[in-house]
Amino acid sequence: DCRQYTNRSCEECLKNVTCLWCASSKRCVEYPVRRILPPADLCELRSARWGVCWVNFEALIIAMSVVGGTLLIMLGVCCCCCCCKKKSKRQVSGGPDKDDERAARERERRRVRQEERRAEMKSRHDEIRRKYGTV
């Protein structure tokens, strides 16, 4: 029975894992198993100790919230990184992106214009050769 450790020490009370130590009232009571957190009329969160004497429920809740939030943020960042990596791989393996396509079209236009100029120059030279009979 946990009540026998009332007005003793936290360490003595918490040797039994079913006990909850209330530091403000120095009471040792049965941990309310049906509820996750002890009710305020039993003991305030900042005074409640369970498992170890140096951590109260309030600090435990805050620490677990911080750790849980950090894990969720890290998970979100990892998911974003993976999605970005897959997207960039798809662009590389799936063909050129828009800038590469634009550059390829511009190169093709220049090549066509160069061929047209060469053909024009060749026809002019051929005319000059015919005119002067050097053909």
Automatic annotation (TrEMBL):
Region annotated Disordered, chain positions: 88-135
Topology of this chain in the membrane: Single-pass type I membrane protein
SMART domains named among the record's database cross-references: PSI (SM00423)
InterPro entries recorded: PSI, PTTG1IP
Subcellular location: Membrane
Annotated keywords: Glycoprotein, Membrane, Signal, Transmembrane, Transmembrane helix
Regions that span the bilayer: 59-84
One GO CC term on file: cytoplasm
Record flagged with keyword Disulfide bond: no
Domain PSI: 1-54
GO biological process, any: protein import into nucleus
Keyword Repeat: no
Positions with biased composition (Basic and acidic residues): 96-135
Name of the protein: PTTG protein
Gene name of the encoded protein: Pttg1ip_1
